[in-house]
Structures are given as structure tokens and as C-alpha cells.
Amino acid sequence: MKKGTKLYSILNQKCPRCHEGDLFEERNPYKLSKIFDMPAECPKCGQPYSLEPSFYYGAMYVNYGLTVGLGIAVFIAMLVLGEEWQLHEYLIAIIGAILITMPLNFRLGRSIWINMFVKYKGVSVEN
Ligand SMILES: [Zn+2]
In angstroms, what is the span from residue 62 Cα to ligand 1's centroid? Predict the structure, then answer.
């Protein structure tokens, strides 16, 4: 994927400003003990990762949207598969999908959130 697009920064979890530095200290979102760990600023360009106190509260809304979207996607996928599912089977599939992708969604939410506020400025940015 091309550097310089928001999607590149979001999916690769890179600094939204330079697309070089990692947004999270641990690349694997399923290492749950490190899931919240972010550097205070980008190691490459110095972009602060927390723009104001409690900056990532807003990411919860993004995360909520992603979670609802996933639930709807699983529901539609089950409808398309055409079996006669029982209510509890829908619930198990949707809740299971949400639980399995929770760490991924959490990080995507933060990544999307900071990308809403910080623009890409290229690799050779000054502080
Ligand atoms: Zn950076």
C-alpha cells in the first residue's frame, strides 16, 4: 500500500504525520499486557501521540462504530449463508467475532482517531 494515504497509516499503525514511526510499542495487538503502550511521541518525527489529556477517549466512539459494523457484517454473512440459524447461534457468532477481534478493533479505533486530527507531512519533516 502507498505511503501518504490515511489508510496506510491506519492499517499499518504508523505515525499519522510521517508514516514511519510505529504508533504502538508492541506490533502484535494480541499481546494484551502491552495493548495500551504507546510512545509519548513518534520516534522518527517527534509528533506527540496524545494531542491533549485523555485524547483517546474519543477513540472509544470509533471503536464502538467498528464493533457495531462487525456485528452487522457477521449477521449479514450468516443470512447469506442461508442456514436456518437460531437466535442463540447468531448471538454466539456475533459475540465471538467481537471478542476475537477486540484487540485489533481497539488499535484500529486509536489509529483512526489520531488520523482524524494529524495530517501526513512526508518523511523529512522538521520538529
Ligand atoms: Zn512520525
Answer: 22
